[in-house]
Amino acid sequence: MWLRNNALQASALGAGLLLTAAIALIAFYVPTDADQGLSQKIFYFHVPIALTAYACFGWGAWKALRHLWHRDERADLESYVAIHLGVIFGALTIVTGSIWARASWGVWWAWQSRQLVLFLVLFLFYCAYFMLRYSVESGPRRARLSAVYAIFGVVLIPISFLAIRLAEDFIHPTVFTSRGPQMAGSMFFTFCVSWAAMLATAHALYRIELAGKRIDAQLRELGELLT
Amino acid sequence: MTSAEKYVAAAYLVVFVALLAYVVIIASKLARLEAALTELVERVRARG
Lengths: 227, 48
Description:
The complex is a heterodimer of chains A (227) and B (48).
Chain A: H1 2-5, H2 7-29, H3 43-70, H4 73-105, H5 114-135, H6 140-153, H7 156-166, E1 176-177, E2 180-181, H8 185-226
Antiparallel strand pairs in A: 1-2
Helix pairs in contact in A: 2-8, 3-4, 3-6, 3-8, 4-5, 4-6, 4-8, 5-6, 5-7
Chain B: H1 3-47
């Protein structure tokens, strides 16, 4: 009952607890990688953030599809908020990945890595979503155009995800293969907790931003009714 | 502090600062909504 009435608070609390647990596991539990040393610990935030960005873009595309299919007005706003969060998580992926690249490879960016370039293309594609959205006047046309664009972008996700496997990229490491995760059990457990923490954080931020935008829209409507 | 430690600290700090910035932006939006709501309530009261 409490959960139903306080879903937003519960979501934020869960995200906070999972983030604390993930940081504690990374700092005190998981062993230091024998090959890369301490810099490998960036992996526990970098990869979950990247996967969360994919999830946000995927969720945004799903909501866009719902908008086109069912003419659901609420789904347009939900799609926008999901893509907004996806761009934030995408930017964090690029920044944390760049720091990790500098620590491991000695460079901030490697253009020859197809996975990095494809992720950048995906990120820039969704950055352009906002340019499109705000270049069209608010209304059903803008919602439809944004929805179509969001659905097109989702095609890049599997390409970006599978690029390293298809293109034999030797620079960017592959830890998740067809034989399962190539890491110790404790490392995989820490990774899973970190990923859950990132997903919970994205979920909490999604709900908070969505609630704010809905209240804003209702207040505007009320203001117009009063004039 | 070794260079590896600096890079790890920097990566985690970036995520922390981004989350903090997001919370600050949301808080400022909330304050703006509160002000808009107060204004609407005043307008309704003024109408009697």
